[in-house]
Fold this protein.
Amino acid sequence: MVEPEARRVSLEPAAFEVQSLEEECSLLGNRCPPCDLVFFPRCHFCTRCSKSGLEEIRLGRKGRLLSFTSGYQKPKHAVVEPPYLVEEIELPERVVVYLLLT
Ligand SMILES: [Zn+2]
């Protein structure tokens, strides 16, 4: 019997880049070169100058914890079990993301 090959799959290809089991995943954003403004999730045009054709970038993997809270109730249809943490993280590109940790 042949063992199935282990691999990573992005649940949201527009937001996460998955390489291989050995490499780490990256969040994908885009940047407006004239404004140096970064978007996550990616935008089709810059909200400051309306330029389209923004450049795709991989966002930094470390950031600054802005705030967090604990959850002890399971929302309807949730995929996580309490207790869990919701964290607000500012990435080096000055983009704020929210993470759910179990
Ligand atoms: Zn712009």
